Amino acid sequence: MLCTWSFRVKRISIVFLFALAVLGTRAYAQGSRFAAADQQQSRNLTGQVLTPSDQPLPSAVVYLKNTKTLAVKSFITENDGGYRFHALAPNVDYEVYAEYQGKKSSTKTVSAFDSRANVTLNLHIDVNK
After folding, report:
1. Which pick of 13, 48, 78, 109 has the fewest CB atoms within 10 Å?
2. What pTM was computed for the model?
């Protein structure tokens, strides 16, 4: 009788562990699928910082503010005035502006309602003001 009970407990334990392993694998796969979907839905913001006559401004500083968390990222423009921010959350508004030698561009907004994966915004700074 004791042997039969012990055998049943072992069998139930094995079935339980197998079920746990299967469910854990499915949960992991589902989590990976959601993570991949989130990455696919992320956005990129690129553009150039330019003078009013469309001359590039290298070494300008571009600021990107997440309006949900208030976190700010910055990017120093390249020789062509270009900047880029990758992997932006799709459900967040962002504010972006540039500064160059004490002068500032107007602030532009990348809206959460903008469904484009790649957004391009050029920022203009009047350095002669």
Report:
1. 13
2. 0.69
Closest CA to 83 of 113, 106, 115, 50: 50
**Maximum distance among all alpha carbons in the chain?**
96
Strand-pairing partners, residue 47, are: 83
pLDDT > 90? residue 12: no
State the residue for tokens 């309602």.
113
Q: What is the DSSP letter of 65?
A: E
Q: What letter does residue 70 receive in the DSSP assignment?
A: -
Tokens 């197998």, located at residue: 18
- Residue 118 parent element (H or E): strand 118-120
- Measured CA to CA in angstroms, residue 86 lies from 6, 74, 128 at distances of 58, 12, 31
Q: Name the 3-class secondary structure at 105.
A: coil
Start-to-end C-alpha separation, the chain: 96
Q: Rounded distance, CA 15 to CA 99, Å? A: 64
CA distance 31 to 122: 37
Question: Any bridge partners for residue 33, and if so which?
Answer: none
Note whether 122 and 47 are within 8 A (CB): yes
